[in-house]
Design a protein that fits this description.
Blueprint (H helix, E strand, L loop, with lengths): L2 E2 L4 E7 L5 E8 L6 E6 L10 E5 L11 H7 L3 E10 L12 E6 L3 E6 L5 E4 L13 H18 L8 E4 L2 E4 L17 H6 L14 E2 L1 E4 L6 E11 L5 E11 L3 E7 H6 L9 E2 L6 E2 H4 L15
Parallel strand pairs: 1-8, 4-6
Antiparallel strand pairs: 2-3, 2-5, 3-4, 5-9, 6-7, 7-8, 10-11, 12-18, 13-14, 13-17, 14-15, 15-16
Length: about 300
């Protein structure tokens, strides 16, 4: 549950050269003003004490769908607390990929997910041995406060809303500060490279490999994607993306679904579809063996 704004990022720079403070700026497609940052906290040890330069995929000339909506509700001054910010380098205190997270007073939890080539380290980080890892208790408290805000926005009775994480117990005693929970980036550049085009695994049956898992965090729907290809208009411009795979909803079945359709889906609690960040490729028959079991009946049998 977060604002996942990776698709709108043009470029940015974050500075942690002052201990306990992260400042900087980012440019997003659809926003006329540069977004500034004034956050309490530090980067993870792989980049602590340095600056990071971020390069996104978006452009002002061709903003992605939803950019206008982002401009209406995303604050141009982001104040609050640092979440997990890492370039994904050793000592790997938090994952092995770039991850930029903060808790904004204006918009709640916000995430930018990038590829390693999109992050440049400026300056020399403090040696990892000379500083302590980010406190997981503090990060759990940040998440707990955010979840309390989400519960309050759902109009749950405040006296019944208690979020528990580790030793932190926080009641939802204040109105929500985030405007809307945005969906994460479902189709990254890395997944595009790995995902075979439509019909490439058609003859494999249950041996077809699932490269991407998508799911609704507040219900039981899951999409196991084996193939995908861009949908283009008459000029050759990509306007959508078509997936094929195993859909596990009211029943299990193979079928097609458009990226735009998945991005618009919200579960019963209003949460968007998410990508399984820890997914490892598996075959369809490993996921749904009952669908690919050979017919065990013999001729004349019962």
């Amino acid at each position: 549950m977060a604002w996942r704004v990776s698709a709108y990022l043009i470029e940015g720079e974050l500075d942690n050269t002052q201990p306990g403070k992260v400042t900087g700026w980012m440019r997003f497609a659809g926003l006329k003003e540069q977004v500034t940052f004034d956050l309490k906290g530090d980067f993870h040890r792989d980049i602590r004490g340095a600056k990071i330069r971020l390069q996104g995929d978006a452009s002002e000339a061709d903003p992605p769908a939803g950019a206008a909506e982002l401009a209406e509700v995303f604050a141009s001054a982001q104040r609050g607390k640092v979440g997990d910010i890492t370039a994904g380098l050793p000592p790997h205190d938090y994952g092995t990929a770039p991850y930029v997270e903060w808790y904004s007073e204006e918009n709640g939890r916000v995430l930018v997910e990038l590829e390693p080539a999109q992050v440049e380290i400026i300056g020399t980080p403090i040696p990892a041995a000379e500083s302590d890892p980010i406190s997981r208790d503090e990060q759990r408290r940040n998440m707990t406060e955010f979840l309390a805000d989400v519960a309050a926005e759902m109009n749950l009775p405040q006296e019944r809303v208690v979020c528990i994480s580790g030793s932190a117990v926080i009641a939802a005693s204040k109105p929500s500060t985030h405007k809307k929970v945005r969906g994460m980036k479902l189709l990254t550049r890395e997944i595009r490279k790995k995902l075979p085009p439509l019909y490439a695994q058609e003859s494999k049956g249950g041996k077809a490999i699932v490269y991407l898992k998508l799911f609704t965090p507040d219900s039981s729907w899951t999409w196991h994607i084996t193939e995908g290809s861009p949908i283009k208009d008459e000029s050759g411009k990509e306007v959508d993306f078509h997936f094929f795979g195993l859909v596990d909803g009211h029943e299990r079945e193979l079928g097609y679904v458009a990226l735009s359709e998945l991005q618009s889906v919200r579960g019963p609690l209003g949460l968007p579809i998410e990508r399984d960040l820890h997914w490892q490729p598996k075959t369809l028959e490993e996921i749904a063996p009952e669908m690919f079991r050979p017919d065990e009946r013999t001729e004349g049998g019962t």
